[in-house]
Design brief:
Helix content: over 70%
CATH topology of one domain: Serine Threonine Protein Phosphatase 5, Tetratricopeptide repeat
Strand content: under 5%
Oligomer: single chain
Radius of gyration: 26 Å
Order of helices and strands: HHHHHHHHHHHHH
CATH class of one domain: Mainly Alpha
Distance between the termini: 76 Å
Amino acid sequence: MSEINKKSDYMSVPFKGLKQQQKLQDKAYNLRLKNSFKEAIGVYLNSLLIDRNNPETYFGLGICYKNSGKIKKAIKTLEKSALLDNSNYETFYELGLCHLIDETPCKAIKCFIHTIELEPDNPDAIYNLGLAHEQCDEEDMALMIYQKLIEHSPSYLNAYLRKSYLLNKMEMYKPALDLYKQVLKINPNYKEVYYDIAHCFDKLGKCREAKRFYHKFLESFPQDEKNESIMKRVEQLKKHTTNKTCVKLSLVHQG
């Protein structure tokens, strides 16, 4: 009888530990929801004293480090979580974001590819894969990824905006303009794009259209820091509208 009691006491230790760890996990998670990352870090570290092989603990701790600006620590911690569980797409996604912030895009690419393998319908992972290729100066690859994302998730606005930004950078204003128009079709209230449309028309030498959208932007965002430069450009365009030509002195595009 005494041997059975001893065995029961022995088995109850890890069980109690697991219960305590779950309480700590729940507490840390709730602190994360309140953006109390510093406090959550302390709770997660206490949880690791009970079990150093729990991938969820390392994942939560990594998120807290990331949101506290401690990117190197976040990467190291999320990598531990990934080693313990390589089936959680969120771990690889967050690790990819950290590598983007850390400006290590080649590592970010590997993380986002693994995320997409685990979760093929994750548009955010596909989008950030494009950003990682941009950091690697692989703009053609990024353009292809954004186009695939547009085809796969036609309501995902960031894909249109980022692709059109790259096209502007490459001075391909007509296809960029077409993408901005698609943005307005998807979301007519996305008025920030008025400036980009005006910029494209301006670069294409279409003065009247450029003026119209510059005015629409000014009306929508009367306090924007670009407005003084926009108003000067509008005055320049007025002088050339009567000649049906447009001197290409337009504003530097704001990405």
